[in-house]
Each structure stands twice: as C-alpha cells, then as structure tokens.
Amino acid sequence: MLKIYGHPDCPDCRNCVKNFDFYKVEYEYYDIRELKNLKQFLIYRDTNPRVFDRLKMIHDIGIPCIVDDGIVFTDWEAYLKYYNHEPIDYENESCSILHKNC
C-alpha cells in the first residue's frame, strides 16, 4: 500500500490526498507534524538524492512524498496519469517556490 508523507497546511498534500480519495487509490497518510513520521520522511529524503536533490535546490520540502513498495517519488500527478486518471486541481495553488504560494 502507498504511504503518503505530508502536512495538512500544504496545498500540494491536500490536492494529492483529495485526488487519491476521488480515484479510490489506497494509501496510508503520515502527518509529518508527528516526530516519528518526520524522522521517517527525512530518512527517505536524505537517502534518495535522485528524487530530492532538485527539490532541495529550489528550497522545496519534498512533500507530498509517496512511497510505493520502497520506491520513493513526489510526482503524484504523474502517478495518477500513469493509471489513466486526470489530476484535479482542488486547491488552485501550490507550495513550491516556483508557484510562489507558500
């Protein structure tokens, strides 16, 4: 089952969860406000440079972080598209610096 590491204040995380719920994608959600979840997220972030180095360079946190059977990724929209689901923009904003909303 997918694991999603996120924060409820993050519009990207809320969008991801709302889309996964809409398309009935099964997942477990881990709120990084809880220290044990934050520690696990940081382990993924610190040990997956191919996934997170670009995000760190633009000062992005890297959430939502999704783990699927040991594979770590942050592009939840591409994941949905791979399964022929069109992502829905519920929030109309983003946390990344490039989108300048957080």
Sheet with the most strands: spatial strand order: 2-1-3-4
Q: Could you name the CATH homologous superfamily?
A: Glutaredoxin
What's the pLDDT, averaged over the residues? 91
- Which percent band covers the strand fraction? 15-25%
**Shape field:** globular
Number of strands: 4
| Oligomer category | single chain
Radius of gyration: 13 Å
Low-confidence stretches: none
Number of domains: 1
CATH architecture: 3-Layer(aba) Sandwich
Main sheet: strands, sense, barrel = 4 strands, mixed
Helix and strand succession?
EHEHHEEH
Helix and strand arrangement:
Blueprint: E1 2-6, H1 11-22, E2 27-31, H2 35-47, H3 49-57, E3 65-68, E4 71-73, H4 76-82
Parallel strand pairs: 1-2
Antiparallel strand pairs: 1-3, 3-4
Word description of this protein:
This protein has 102 residues and is α+β, with helices and mostly antiparallel strands. It has a single domain (2-82), classed as Glutaredoxin. Helices cover 40% and strands 17% of the residues. A four-stranded mixed sheet has the order 2-1-3-4, with helices on both faces. Strand 1 (2-6), helix 1 and strand 2 form a beta-alpha-beta unit. It is globular and about 30 Å long.
Structural key phrases:
single chain, 102 residues, alpha+beta, Glutaredoxin, 4-stranded mixed beta sheet, 4 helices, 40% helix
Short description:
By secondary structure, the protein is of the alpha+beta class. The chain is 40% helix and 17% strand. The protein starts with a strand and ends in a 20-residue tail after the last helix.
